[in-house]
Amino acid sequence: MAATSAATFSVGSAVSLGLKASQLPQSKQFVVRFNSQNSLTSFSGLKASTSVNCESESSFIGKESAVALRGSFASKAQKSSQRSQHHLNPQASYKVAILGAAGGIGQPLALLIKMSPLVSALHLYDIANVKGVAADLSHCNTPSKVLDFTGASELADSLKAVNVVVIPAGVPRKPGMTRDDLFNINANIVKTLVEAVADNCPDAFIHIISNPVNSTVPIAAEVLKQKGVYNPKKLFGVTTLDVVRANTFVAQKKNLKLIDVDVPVVGGHAGITILPLLSKTKPSISFSDEEVQELTARIQNAGTEVVEAKAGAGSATLSMAYGAARFVESSLRALDGDGDVYECTFVQSDLTELPFFASRVKIGKNGVEAIISSDLQGLSEYEKKALEALKPELKASIEKGIAFAQKQPVAA
Hints:
It is a single chain. By secondary structure, the chain is an alpha/beta fold. The chain is about 35% helix and about 25% strand. The protein contains eleven helices and 16 strands. The protein has helices at about 65-75, 105-115, 130-135, 155-160, 185-200, 215-225, 240-255, 290-300, 300-310, 315-335, 380-405; strands at about 5-10, 15-20, 30-35, 50-60, 85-90, 95-100, 120-125, 145-150, 165, 205-210, 235, 265, 275, 340-350, 355-365, 365-370. The strands form five sheets. Strands 8-7-6-9-10-11 form a six-stranded parallel β-sheet, with helices on both faces. The protein has a three-stranded antiparallel β-sheet with strand order 4-3-5, with helices on one face. A three-stranded antiparallel β-sheet has the order 14-15-16. A hairpin with a 3-residue loop joins strand 1 and strand 2 (about 15-20). The longest helix is centred in the last third of the chain and has 27 residues, at about 380-405. It is globular.
């Protein structure tokens, strides 16, 4: 998972800052207090805030950064009769494991997560080349301790007492390769890794990135069931990149400020199963039929756009890492007690007749607290037809994953 051009500094349970390196002077400790609305007026999954108070004892957010932080919220200031105050003293307290940390997604994802003041330990696991990644990251002056684990013999240790597990392990797509082509390789990888999670940290949030997500999440669910530790509230398929792309493309198309744009994306995480609900875009804007078709197609095929542009040199690793890091940040905020965390994600769901479905959910300390059904109400005719059209393909992918897991006995 990859990084962005400007470093995204995650301020624990409230906000993500796009700050340049020059804006991050060294320091010791800081306290950030947020007064935020208890409403879903979010941008990119991050809450709108009415005020920010930064008290800094020269930490890695100094005076310049504090000014930038306050300024970033000035345009979002709104009056609200109901406000909740969430106090954050970034004493790192959560352990995050990245399984597949030496890969094209894993390395930039590890860098982004390393920047979170809520992470006390970052466990990096891969079958090879992870020691160098860990050594490199360990030089970054952020609170989390970086530990490396190599090979099957060290997998269990990488998962001990972990709060959040992120799984980007697997092979990437190459030109001409469909997500389905990845299935046999990545299915076995996910099965093995989730077995280890079940044995060593069954209460952790599990974030599945390995493609095809429409099948690997059901595989993970079946493995956890066979191990007797399945909690559907804590198993997430990471589809955040679809939302990130939708927000970006809509903002560009309509000349909007990106911070104002939020487009829910439902369904699955491949091709036509990706359904951006443009009629539900915030702020409310109108699209012509041509714009809807053009934007929907681009969002659905954005991964292929990157694969072809890289011409055999990789897939969408950087934007995927950014989207995954955002989802990890949201999970950490929820674990830290923030009661206003919403993200689109592929989870066990009763929103449709399908057993798994991507939609906006509210995330709390114990995982999924609520599935937001209102996003599927009042759809446009185009979206209604697209929703029905994606179901057979998504159903087949889910069933393929379940069948694979049921045929494979889990390791004792």
